[in-house]
Design a protein that fits this description.
α1 packs parallel to α3, α6 packs across α7 and α9 packs parallel to α10. This protein has one domain: Alpha-Beta Barrel (TIM Barrel), CATH 3.20.20. A 7-stranded parallel beta sheet has the order 2-3-4-5-6-7-8. It is built from 14 helices and 11 strands. It binds ligand V47 and iron/sulfur cluster. The site of iron/sulfur cluster has 12 residues, from loops.
Length: 360
Amino acid sequence: MDNLFTSLHEKIAAGQRITDAEALALFESPDLLAIGELAAAANHRKNGDRVYFNVNRHINYSNLCVNQCIFCAFSKEEGEAGGYTLALEQIQEKAAEAVAAGATEIHSVGGLHPTLPFSFYLEMLGAIKEVSAELHIKAFTAVEIDYFARITGKSVPEVVAELKAAGLGSMPGGGAEILGQAVRDKICPEKISGQRWLEVTELAHQGGLRSNASMLFGHLEEFADRVEHMRLIRELQDRTGGFQAFIPLAFQPDNTRVPGAKGVGGVDALKTLAISRIYLDNFRHIKGYWVMLGLKIAQTALCFGVNDLDGTVIEEKIGHDAGADSPQVVAREGIIELIRKAGKIAVERDTLYNEIKVYA
Ligand code: V47
Ligand code: SF4
């Protein structure tokens, strides 16, 4: 084991890539602090002491979904109690609220809606831009983009071009879950395959959209599935360079149908974030999404290779419907405080990581 850490320290100092076998050995190692040290060193080479966040707002336009992923507590079937679809005016109200709170980004995703036409999504983008042309809209995962292509009969590049023309700025990283098909068959059998998620994302990058990549961990997957997932993501990033951040999402078990579901422990969360930092040498940013991690682990993760805390969020549904006990919103000052108390420099960024303000 000691040999593992000595050789990995050398690799990281030389900016070299670690292998799948080494990543797996890290997952199997009990030495959280040694893993954290490697990750912190890898992060420091890329980002120094800077930790990024943005001021944003989530708008989940609808929770109706034709899929039934067993880890999802957010989606409802048509006609089921609790199902909703926002009207364009409601979306505009939420966007206006975001602007008033100083937001630079709207993060918008929804289920795969049984009946809404593609024109709704184009109109939604236009309606948000009408509120403020300055707002960056990060919306629609690769799963939704694939669905739009299917309901319209258009190609993915056509769908991407139309969404861009209507105001889409970039794509969030959802829908990746675990890309390996054996796990997908168990947790989200109706969802597009991992291969298709990669293909749609590659086409979106080629069409000029940046995106993120997420990994849902802590359900039925093994460590080897996490490593395979990161390998597929790393390979795609080698081809396109279109990813901005990697986001390990800690599974929240309440109201889900994952057999034997338990929450993710702090050690597993920190280890997974740290290993992703070490393994994904071609990613500049690792995002600690505080909604799923909780604020305390998200802050601690800043000493374990994480350099981005996402945003102020406001009204998050996907994690909270599944029992996340983090707050609904953290104000700009709250995020800055978390970062400062971890001994780091808080930097407000826009969605594309242009620096807006450094809180020295
Ligand atoms: O794809 C669903 C996950 C994702 C649960 O790109 C769950 O900046 C935990 O991708 N427990 C959507 N996770 C969220 C997402 C995201 C969030 C923040 C920022 C960005 C970004 C992307 O949430 C889904 C799925 O993987 N999810 N159910 C659950 N029970
Ligand atoms: Fe639908 Fe997405 Fe939930 Fe799966 S994770 S059921 S695709 S909303």
